[in-house]
Here is the input.
Amino acid sequence: MTTKAKRLSARQLAVIDELFAGEDSEKDVLARCKVSRKLYGRWLADEAFTAELDRRVTEAYRRSALLIARHAPTAADRLLKLTKCEKEETARKACLDIISPPGSNPTTTAAETSPTDSPKLSPETAGKLLAVLAASEEE
Here is the structure.
């Protein structure tokens, strides 16, 4: 039977719904829905179940990305304002956040970060950010 041809049971769909509905752990959801770990393990080996689970995960990430994109201009504006904060450490961290690629990690090496992922800064904005960083280093 192919993935498309097999329908999930109401119980399987209920478990998936519960997994995405709230803050409960997987263990709590399974207990509430009276699904054993063994049965859940069989479901996870089922292509139709995992396809639906994967579809929901992708959908959740897409919704998150849209939410972040919708609020990115406001966040960027606030971050730029923080670069002028009187608290040196706050201004320095805001500058670092701006010049660091999104999702960057201090342990990420240069080889792991693609230059095309970096935000595009105008030369004057980059200069201002570097000036603020340099001024905070001198003090």
